[in-house]
From TrEMBL:
Record organism: Streptomyces antioxidans
Keyword Transcription set for record: yes
Record carries keyword Cell membrane: no
Keywords: DNA-binding, Transcription, Transcription regulation
Residue span, HTH gntR-type domain: 13-81
Name listed for the protein in its UniProt record: GntR family transcriptional regulator
A GO MF term: DNA-binding transcription factor activity
InterPro entries, alphabetized: Tscrpt_reg_HTH_GntR, WH-like_DNA-bd_sf, WH_DNA-bd_sf
Xref: PANTHER family: HTH-TYPE TRANSCRIPTIONAL REPRESSOR YTRA
Listed PROSITE patterns: HTH_GNTR (PS50949)
Pfam families (alphabetical): GntR
Coiled-coil segments on the chain, per record: none
Length: 134
C-alpha cells in the first residue's frame, strides 16, 4: 500500500499541516492500519517535492498526538489507536483546569470558556468523543 498524500502549495494551510492532517485522518479511518510503516522523512520529502524539515515537522506533530510512533532507526509507524488521543486530551484538560483555577475562574466560567472554544473549532454541534476535524 503506497501512502497517497497530496500537498497543495497554494493552500493557506502549511504543507506540514496538510501532511499531518491527511495521515491522521487515514490512521483514524483505518486506511492506514496499526503498524503501517511510514516512508522515511527524506524519501517522503523527495517524493512530495518538499524539504525534509517539512515532513519531519509533520511526523513530530503526529508523534506528539499519538498517531505515530518512531522506533529509532527502524522508522515511524502508525501507532495503536484507542487511548492515545484521549489520554493526551485528558492531560491537556487537566493543565487547563489547573491554569483556570490559578487565574481565579470558577467552575462555570472555566466550563463556558471550554464550550466557546469547542464551538469555535467544531461548530455548534460540539459534542461527542473522538472525531478530530483534522
Amino acid at each position: 500500500m503506497a501512502l497517497q498524500i497530496i500537498v497543495d502549495q497554494d493552500a493557506a494551510t502549511a504543507p506540514f499541516e496538510q501532511i499531518r492532517t491527511q495521515i491522521a485522518e487515514l490512521a483514524r479511518s483505518g486506511a492506514l492500519p496499526v503498524g503501517y510503516k511510514l516512508p522515511t522523512v527524506r524519501g517522503f520529502a523527495e517524493e512530495l517535492g518538499l524539504a525534509a524539515n517539512t515532513v519531519a515537522k509533520a511526523y513530530r506533530a503526529l508523534e506528539e498526538d499519538g498517531v505515530i510512533e518512531t522506533r529509532g532507526r527502524h522508522g515511524s509507524f502508525i501507532a495503536a489507536a484507542g487511548d492515545a488521543a484521549l489520554r493526551r486530551a485528558a492531560e491537556a484538560a487537566q493543565t487547563y483546569v489547573q491554569r483556570a483555577r490559578r487565574l481565579g475562574l470558577d467552575r462555570a466560567a472555566a466550563l463556558a470558556t471550554v464550550e466557546d472554544a469547542l464551538r469555535a473549532v467544531y461548530g455548534d454541534s460540539a459534542g461527542g468523543r473522538g472525531g478530530d476535524p483534522a
